[in-house]
Amino acid sequence: MQFGAMNFPVAPVLDEIEAIGRLGFDYLELAMDPPRAHYSILSASRPAIERALKDRGLGLICHLPTFLSTADLTESLRRASVMEMHDSMAVAAVLGAKKVVLHPSMAAGMGAFVLDTVKGYLFDFLAEMVDAARRLDLTICLENMFPRCRIGVAPEDFEPIFEAFPALKMTLDTGHANIDDRRGRRLKGLVERFGGRIGHLHISDNRGRTDDHLAVGQGTVGFAELVRRLKAAGYDDTVTLEVFDKDRRRLVESRNRIEAMFNRR
Prior knowledge:
eight-stranded parallel barrel, globular
């Protein structure tokens, strides 16, 4: 098992690498978002980033941009968003990442009223990304989302996606799965159906209403049961702690708790 943490894209990337390295993580999950981690900035800073990662003994996973509209109903906006994803993925490969996290397209604005159209755009987008990932020797881990995104939320949403794109893996996000589902049925269902497709974990806690990114144990996610199910599925891969507390000791505490659960017999 490898444990990582994510940069805050408002802070300089090199400062974030230094901070995460000091905390003893195995890798950086690089959120490729403006203002400080847009692909153009990362590309220009490539030698310094590679040197900093090596000096701190950190591996690299890239999280492709979060705030893009890859299923926008306006074609020019949709295509611009898709091209931003292509360029970001290319830079991720140049930086040496082998695994990238990708959000499914979401139904924003009027898209909620024409879901079939939005889903069509999603599949077109995924087809482009999967083809690009194959050429770049990258593995895409598609992340489950929260209910207001309308797509990529419930286990049944992923059935046709994984059937159409066998190369895709899943990023299982505990915080997203817990929103509006305090009994944990959605999280359990995702593990039960796709345990063998999970290629990455995002670990954070919340109280079931919003994506609070709390430390493990501060919310209502049933981590002990989740880890039991993941172990039964044979999961032994990367785990990113998405704990966005100003006190980064909460990151370390959360990592230690999750690691202890996985090590428990």
